[in-house]
Amino acid sequence: MITIGIGWLGTILYLLNHAYLSLITNWSPRVYYAGNLIAATLLIVNSVLVASWQAVVINGFWAVISLLLLMHIPLKNTPLSFRMMSLAVVFIWLAAFIGCFYDLELAIRIMGWSSALVFGAAYLLFCAQKLTQKTYLYLNVYAALALTPQLWLDRNYPVLTLEIIWALISIHGALRQPDNAHLID
Fold first, then answer.
1. What does pTM read for this prediction?
2. Any transmembrane segments, and where (predicted)?
């Protein structure tokens, strides 16, 4: 019962925080990063207890990045690029496609890992100011939807609900962004 409560609390906090980024024009990075750190920590606990490993990795990565930013450790010099992330996703898709011929659950797990990669890399690139807010939100749509089949199999319903609503908020936020949006300051 406590595990479920922790998971739902983390889900609600993440959604409120993501809505804040997606809907508020002059959002505060410190508020956003602090909200992500708290929500990620709650969902790490929940996901460990239900053995939902992609969700543990995603939220662990978000917690570390958020903590680094709250400690004023700059991420602008990260060697990661959008191109590198995209290439890795293509390889994961290829592995998932091949996995479909052997075991559908294996293919779903592989796709879940593509979500972990995109969520983590997109968050890092956005925080390093290497992605526009609009691109970041569209990548969040992909990552959220790519993870949902695995979360269903894991019966990780708080995070499954989070990902579905996260994708909808991300679509709404991205559509509200101008096409010529600049990188964050």
1. 0.81
2. 6-24, 31-50, 56-75, 87-104, 110-128
Question: What CA–CA distance (Å, rounded) separates 147 from 164?
Answer: 10
Secondary structure of residue 132 in the 3-state scheme: strand
Contact 10, 43 (CB under 8 A): yes
Query: Please, where are the H alpha helices in the chain?
Result: 2-23, 29-49, 53-70, 82-100, 104-127, 133-154, 157-176
Is residue 35 within 8 Å of 13, Cβ to Cβ? yes
Which is nearest to 159 in space by CA: 8, 36, 5?
8
* Predicted confidence (pLDDT) per residue in 13-69, tens digit: 988 998 898 888 888 999 999 999 999 999 999 989 988 888 898 899 989 999 999
Asked whether 137 and 32 are in contact (CB, 8 A), the reply is no
Give the residue ranges of DSSP H helices in 24-81. 29-49, 53-70
The angle that helices 29-49 and 53-70 make with each other, rounded to 10 degrees, is 150
